[in-house]
Amino acid sequence: MAHFQIKLFTQQKQFSVTDNTFSVPGSSTCTELNDLVNKLLSEDKDESTRSDFDFLVNDEFIRTSLVDHVETKGLSSESVIDVEYLQRKQAPELQHSFQQPDWISSIKTTEKFILTGSYDCAVTVWDRVTTKQLVCGIGHSEPVKSIELINYNADEKKQKISFVSTSQDQHAVIWTYNSSTNQLSSLFCCKGHSKSVECAASNEKKSIFATGSWDSTIKVWSSSVTPEEDTQEVINSSKKKFKSGKKSLTRTAKVTLPGHTEVVSALTWLNENEICSGSWDHTIRIWDIDTAVEKSHMRGMKSILSLDYSHLSRLVVTGNTDRHVRLWDPRSGEGAVVKCNLTSHIGWVTSVHWAPNDSHTLVSGSLDNCVKMWDTRSPKAPLYDLQAHTDKVMSVDWSLPDIVASGGADCKVFTFAVNTGAVDNVYG
Amino acid sequence: MKKKRPLSELQTSILGENEENLFTNKPIEEEESENEEENEENDDSMLGEEDSDVEEGEEVNEKSTEPTQHTEEKKETSEVVAKINEKLEKQTEDNDNDTSDEEDSRNTVGNIPMQWYEDFPHIGYDLDGKKIAKPIRNNDELDKFLDKMDNPEYWKTIHDKTTGRDHVLTEEELSLVNRVQRGYFYDAKYDPHEPYVDFFTNEKMLHPINNAPAHKRSFTPSLVEKRKVGKLVHAIKMGWLKVGKPKQDDEEQIKFYDLWADSHSELARQKMHIPAPKPALPGHEASYNPPPEYLPTQEEIDQWKEDDPEDRKFDFIPEKHDALRRVPQYPKFIQERFARCLDLYLCPRQRKMKFNVNPDDLIPDLPKPRDLRPFPTVQALCYRGHQAMVRTISVDTTGQWLASGSDDGVVRIWEVQTARCVRELKIDEKEAIKCISWCPNTSVCLLAITVDTKIIILNPYIGDRLVAQATDSLLQSYEPNEEEEEQSGSKSEKSNSLIPPWRSVETGLEYQDGYRLVITHPKAVSKVTWHAKGDYFAATVPNNSNAQVFLHQLTKRRSQNPFSKCKGAVQSVLFHPNRPFFFVATQQYVRVYNLVKQQLSKKLLSNAKWISSIAIHPGALYKHTGDNLIVGSYDCRLSWFDMDLSSKPYRTMRYHKRAIRACCFHRKYPLFASAGDDGSIVVSHGMVYSDLMQNPLIVPVKVLKGHKVDRNLGVLDCCFHPHQPWIFSSAADNTIRLFS
């Protein structure tokens, strides 16, 4: 077996070792390299604490033996190989799970609460710590398809949060929850879509939000919780399905963006005035909100089910109607090709979410009952499989660095605690 | 004496030679000189000549025998010899110092550089091995010079190294040297340019070259021929040989080659003879005294008797007999002989014409499936919830909802994306939902369900709410036209049993469930099909003698039976998407009717025994392509009809192992699929070109498996997603699956 000359380096200062070149056998895997680094560290520091590391060559994790990795990457085995190592991300631990009466279509986490939208037409607010159901509001007449926060620290005490839920009844409803009074009230009913509203996304300032619908349009709405000029009191419709008792006001869309030929299934904001949409017509389109025109589009081969953008890596991740998670670069404009395929799922990827504090990590949920945590530098194998669901995973959320939440067709919400310690050291 | 005798004999021989030389034309002078020299040499070394004595002695003996008759001549010769002897002796005495070349040639050292002998007193060896002494001469330059000045023959004197002596060239030799130097023939007398005498010219001469008279035998008649002719004449006389006119007919008539003559001739029969297969030789089991292992036990005998004659290993039971004479007569002898004869007689023995075709050449050159993407490849979702087999499914035009009907009378509506059941309707307690179909018009939201004798038009209130409300208002806005009603009333008296009544559901539980219209037919309805515009729909009522097809119009709530007579049992009906054609599939034929002209326009022969389903290519909707139709049948065949091409199938595909239940086309992608009882769905690429000259390209691309076969029933229905390259299939295992 051939030996390789490797040079170890790291960006994590506390684990740095002397700048030597080592000759290691080509058959060595992560475990052997781990032993090597730990030995070096223990020599330096005389500490017996052992930590696990992951090893990167050419920005890709070594998952097989070194020789296989070098061969597949097409590197020269003669020269010295720079091997970067970093502390291995700790496995997320299953924290809580709680049951809902019906399928959970969407989930969002805040610092104190977990919001779920479900197929029994209800939006539910849960306490994140005690996992108690705080309040359940029914503002829709059809299953809720998505839920999005528009303001979760409205006042100083962080007692009020406001969010929007979209539903198959063609409406989006803006809600406010006051934790001090434990009161959930639907403020506005956003009417305008002619078919089921599939997704909603709020911009970073939380001033406006966009919704995508089966009528293949995107509509942008104001997310202010106070009545605006253009809103008007709702006329009592023939179907009195609003059980919240309160009168909710109707809000109309600011901008309508037609252009997709099929259902707009996913939305995400790139910056304050650019929105990225994914559709079943296999395209990702980027729109300018100010001018309400399409700026560019990327064409794929499969329908897009979910989409997320990371401000750290500046990449768009999509979940498609096949088993791949795809990474796109929205800046490359038209004719862009998929940058990377993350392949391990065996069902449609229904939901994807970037890590809020890490440019490499993301989480995905799929119809194969599995939630997977990925590092983009390891496209063939995920970092961790979070196997808790017993049915289709419909939604995953990683809005806050320390918690991953997922909900699915088994009517259960699972939350996983993510240890952010090591990551904070690098990027924080 | 010993010395003298050979010398005399030798001289006689030389003399003889000399005598002969006188007759030949050869130059004599040289020979003579040679002879002289020889004689001289013989004097010098007579002992060396003894070897050759014997031969020459013989010659002499011969010659000596002759002169015995002429003694006088002998005397004369002896005198001549004596004279020559004297002369020779004088010569040798005179020319003692003189040397000759001939003697030098006797030097036996061969062709070697003569300077090797420079240091020796001799210059070589003669034939007897004796040394040849060097001639004494002083060769300093002065001598040479003097010689050159004095000797007038110096210029023609050459030094012979092998003898060490000088040799003066004779005139002959000089002339020879001159001729060779000038490149002439060495023989001065030879004339290379003699005039050519052309004895045998190509011209025919008047007189023969050879004037010899012809031989006698050239003009005397042959005796042998005379004998042969005599025999023939005798044969003719005796009548053994008949002489007449040669048959002119054979020569004049042109001979035609009879191509077929051979096939009836005896020779042809013999050529094509195939020997009858020989019966198998009897084995040990047929012996009268077989080895014990061949004898069956009682169980085996019983088994043998139970088995069918085809299954038996032997036609008889091996038996053991003490002696050959105890063997009884074989009872089946005559039967077996007869059967054998019957086999030989009835079995045609014929030479098979073998085609040597490379099997690969028979496979058409089709594009690879991976170049024909997209098409469904893997199962994406499974819609579970039905408690009985799902007989029928239908996707709405938006592709968001999927309706399914099962055998326990339940209709479910699913969200396609998540496999969530959003509606569940119990239509009937007992009867199965036979067919379910969304109205293809996007501005209405209606679902046609057939159960037992009824067609239920249902508004599931799903999807676009405005559309659903508009649908309701559309249905409510119907006002029966009184005139028509009167007319239909008068008609209905005549054919009341034929026209099915419509019932509008206005209120009640049924209305809340979504029931809007109910049409009751005289017999159970098997299928319902919408026209592309969503106003007309057709129902198939099998078993209803002459009224097997009904056309219903939604807006006017009218029904009609378009055919006064139905030929055969109608299996399925179909509207052409944009032209007034109506396809009616009976068990073996598909008839195409023009609804405007009200006549049969085409009849397609499916070659199938029992058609199960038909589907029309939607290309006519988008492109100006011809009409293409696929027909699935219960005998496992899927036939593609190009209706512009022929009324017979353009292509017949047998990819299913069992009956085909359903077939369908994709509305946008060039895909079609067939589903069958073997639990598989075969997805094929079917590209139709606008160019009418180009035939459709049909490539099977994928076999989708996943459904379980239950009670010999597999996939019962399949349909494509309207926009995506996905296919839904419902099966007898109570599930619906989505392949993407």
What does this protein look like?
The complex is a heterodimer of chains A (428) and B (740). Helices cover 7% and strands 47% of the residues of chain A. Chain A is mainly beta and 428 residues long. In chain A, a hairpin with a 4-residue loop joins strand 30 (361-366) and strand 31. The two termini of chain A are 41 Å apart. Chain B has 740 residues and is of the alpha+beta class. Among the domains of chain B are: 1-51, no CATH class; 142-188, no CATH class; 369-739, 7 Propeller (Methylamine Dehydrogenase, Chain H), CATH 2.130.10. In chain B, the strands form 9 sheets. A 5-stranded antiparallel sheet of chain B has the order 10-11-12-14-13. Chain B has a 4-stranded antiparallel sheet with strand order 5-33-32-31, with no helix packed on it. The radius of gyration of chain B is 64 Å and the shape is elongated. The model of chain B is unreliable at 1-75, 87-104 and 488-496 (pLDDT under 50). In chain B, a hairpin with a 4-residue loop joins strand 21 and strand 22. Chain B starts with a helix and ends with a strand. In chain B, helix 2 (28-44) crosses helix 4. The interface between A and B is medium-sized, with 26 and 21 residues.
Please supply descriptive tags for the structure shown above.
heterodimer, A: 428 residues, mainly beta, 6-stranded mixed β-sheet, 5-stranded mixed β-sheet, 3 helices, 47% strand, globular, disordered C terminus, B: 740 residues, alpha+beta, Methylamine Dehydrogenase, Chain H, 5-stranded antiparallel β-sheet, 18 helices, 26% helix, elongated, disordered N terminus
